[in-house]
Amino acid sequence: MHRSLTFSLIGLVSIGIAACQEENPTAFASDLLLKEPITLEIEIPWEDFASDLEVFGGYGAPWELGTGVVAKGFAEILNARTLVRFAAYPKVHQVRDTTGTTRADSSLTFVGGRVVAFFDTIASTNNGPVELGLGATQTPWDKRTVTWVTAVDTLNDLRLWPQPGAGPVTSIGTTVWDPAEGDSAWFELDSLQVEAWADTADVSRGARIESFTDNARLQVSRVVLRLDTRPSSNPDTIIVLSAQRDEISFVYDPIPEAPANGIRIGGAPAWRTVLNVKIPTHLDGPAELCVAAGGCPLELKPLELNYAAITLKSERGEQAFQPTDSIGLDVRQVLRRDALPKAPLGESLTGLLGQRVGPDAFGAKSGTDIEIPITEFVRDLLGSQDGMSPTKTLALLSVFEPISIAYASFHGPGDENGPVLRLVVTVGRAMELP
Amino acid sequence: MKQFIRTLVLVLVISLVATPSSAQSLYNAAGLGLPVEAIDGRARALGNLGIGLWGSGLLPGDPAAAGMFIVPTAVIVGQPSWVDYDHESGNSGSIQGNRFPLMGVGYPGFSGIFTLSLSSFLDQHYKSQRSLELDLRGEKSEVTDFFEQDGSIGSLNFGYSRPIGTSAALGFSLGRYAGSILRQLERDFSTLSFPGALESYQTSSRWTYSGTSLTGGMAANLGTFARVAASVTWSGDLNATASDDTPGMDRSFSLPMQYRLGTSIVLAPGLMITASAIRADWADIERDLDTPATVGSTSNIGVGVELSRANIFGLALPLRFGYRTGKLPFSLGSGVATERIFSAGLGLSLSQADDIVLGGVDAAIERGRRSGSVLTEAFWRATISLRVSGY
After folding, report:
1. Rg from Cα positions in chain A
2. What residue in A sits closest to B90 (Cα-Cα)?
3. What's this model's pTM, rounded to 2 decimal places?
4. Would you identify the CATH topology of the domain B2-389?
5. Do A16 and B14 touch (CB under 8 A)?
6. Per-domain residue ranges of chain B
7. What are A265-288's pLDDT values in tens digits?
8. Nearest-angstrom CA–CA distance, A390 and A393
9. Which residue, among B100, B85, B47, B37, has the nearest Cα to B337 in the 3D structure?
10. Is residue A7 scored above 90 in pLDDT?
11. How far apart are CA A266 and CA A56, in angstroms?
12. Could you read off the pLDDT of B251-283 as tens digits, one per residue?
């Protein structure tokens, strides 16, 4: 009896488990007698969701880019020069001696060399050859604070360049970079200049690269010092060693002024645009929305908001600072507006890469609507404010700061091109029993 | 007694393993759902509607039957099913599911027997989806609505039966409807191409059910060749109380009186026939439904025959055959849906003292068809019940 009972119970459980692999019945659309929610897009003008626009500059410094810029009279106004310091020269190198044996040689003689500059062909504006000049700086300079007019601007230490534009320099030579022939150009060095840059204790040492060709803006992606080296173990042979650049920065003039009523993002140092936002918690239209919701005003609930984006209209900025590459736009919450421009920021609302915008949007396709989605932020705000509508401050900035000498420009509020908040909402009647 | 307690523990284990039960028909989408009868494998095999069967039983629809055999009793019923559907839209397919429509125990006291059972009442689980076109930013975009209704209604019944003389019994049970339902709709925008992802729209509401029912019944043996039984169930309103954190409103649904009548007749030793009927008029509930639904009366009848002389290895192995037909209370489309079922089954006595089965398994297999104006379902359904009795 007990055994039979046990077997029966096991059988019953087995059937239960086997049949528990449910396939849920799926009825058909015609049987779904729910009223259809309505989905529509609503555009909220600047006046109804934002205020207090301000543009702040000065975030980061050119040296943080790790690249350089050279320009002469670009767009008639921009001049830029790149400053480089090289790291200590190699002290030991494995050299094959006259007997054919490879061994470490620590007695190296540097008899000459060349500075090789590599250019970003996409980010550079020139299509034809550009004449470049290389000079050795004579004034101590600080890579973190150097500008067109100041060589050093640290605490209690402000020193100007004797000549604005990182001058004067001892001219070393000139060269021509033609993008049709490659992505690099080089300047030959004699042994005296190589020797002069070997002293890493000399804070005035450095190379200045400038352009002698008007209306070009070049982006220097990398600079390397190639050293012609004579090893003691095989003095008949010249080998080429490299000294990597230790520091790189660039100086430029003029520094652009903050826009009177525009939105600016990017640049080096970077620009940020700050605005206060107040997300409407109740919607009064359009009519079809009110019908679908059973009346207005409709309280907007987080799960009814499908999409929210600040929409900016791009415009041509100053030609000299026109982007030549994509810019990633970011939005972050400003945690303390009263602490601006040094207010702490919250997490990115746009993700790692931000909202990518191509350079054409600020040139041939200016006037393009650029949407920066902030759906999660708005949903959280709607969920946390409990019918109230607190004001939050957002900063529009580039994903990486600084990103380039160029910056993105957008129309500010005040006319039909001003920023708007685009919402996609879905509303329907409350879910009820049949 | 020890065995009885052990069985109770096992029943509990089984119920934990098996939950949650789920749906077995697309008719769950109609009205308040599809009724799920709380009857065991023997009744299923005989096409019986849960009343008037010869012998003892622990069936909520036949409260007096428990009083005909006053010993501790426990029963559990498992019911997997496999359904092929064919919709007027041209869609067809299959679904499968499992449920445990009845778990119950009975224990003697005060010259009668007290019963406690958990039984199913209405199954409401189903999903649905529809595609629709949105006009956003001047472009037509297709989005999909996903709807899911997850819920069921059961009843917890407490009853008492006692014999009247040597050949009759009276019984009643007080039932408490219980259950919950979650209805949720999600609109998926993943096909839309926007600068950022569109979050789904979601709305949902949850309700818990409550209500009261009272079932009274009688059963009488006419000599040793027949039994007749009748019962009636009165139900108060079925109340659906919305959760505080959901927007749905409280609702109330009128439930019908249910009348049952059944009989078993022993035509010859080892040969018994049975017939039963149930009627409930669900018309009153129509005005409680906001969504148009086809509501009808359920008038079900079932007939069956049992050959109880068969045995295997010395154990009784009764063979059963049955047929039942009836209407569904809620239908999709315009007409009232009907259900026809042919059934067969057998019983296995695991332990028997004289004519009294102390432990047994009853199995039934049903081949049925539900037909409505827009949906036809053909299904196989197995029912296995385990019943244990003894001191």
Report:
1. 32
2. A28
3. 0.76
4. Porin (2.40.160)
5. yes
6. 2-389
7. 999 999 999 999 988 888 887 888
8. 10
9. B85
10. no
11. 11
12. 999 999 999 999 999 999 989 999 999 999 988
